[in-house]
Amino acid sequence: MSVILTSRIIAPEGAPEGTTGQPDAEMLAQLPPEVQQSVLGSLADAFGDTFTVAMLVMVLALIPAAFLPRRKSVQPIEPGTVPMH
Predict the structure, then answer these.
(1) Hey, how many other C-beta atoms are within 10 angstroms of the C-beta on 39?
(2) In whole angstroms, what is the distance from residue 15 CA to residue 37 CA?
(3) What's the rounded Cα separation, in Å, for the pair 29 and 36?
(4) Which long-range contacts (CB under 8 A, 24 or more apart) does 46-49 make?
(5) Using CA atoms, how far apart are residues 30 and 12, in angstroms rounded to an integer?
(6) How high is the pLDDT of residue 28?
(7) pLDDT at residue 7, rounded to an integer
(8) Nearest to residue 21, comparing CAs of 36, 34, 33, 32?
(9) Residue 24: helix, strand or coil by DSSP?
(10) How many angstroms separate the first and last alpha carbons of the chain?
């Protein structure tokens, strides 16, 4: 997930060639308000895309988990016994 987020922050869609999208607070304060909104919008899009990918991965992981057996153990373990290998 961090690779997706980092790549979207470093090279946001629509950014001019050779620019990076790594803003800090001082740089943002020096920009005009409409540019600030654009930069913050790109960051929000990067986090949104990362969230979407994370949700997709989670849903895909739940599919095989739904097929795992749900039965109890056949042999109960007596209290006080320690399983050995």
Answers:
(1) 16
(2) 14
(3) 8
(4) 46/5, 46/8, 46/9, 46/12, 46/21, 47/5, 49/4, 49/5, 49/8
(5) 20
(6) 73
(7) 73
(8) 36
(9) coil
(10) 38
Mean pLDDT in consecutive groups of 10 residues from the start of the chain, 85 residues: 73 55 69 81 86 94 91 70 67
Tally of residues, the chain: 85
- Pure H helices in the chain: 2-10, 25-30, 33-65
Q: Which two tokens stand for residue 5?
A: 């987020």
Both tokens assigned to 62: 């739940």
The full set of domain ranges for the chain reads 2-61
- Residue 24 has a pLDDT of 66
CA distance 19 to 26: 17
Q: Looking at residue 40, what is its pLDDT?
A: 82
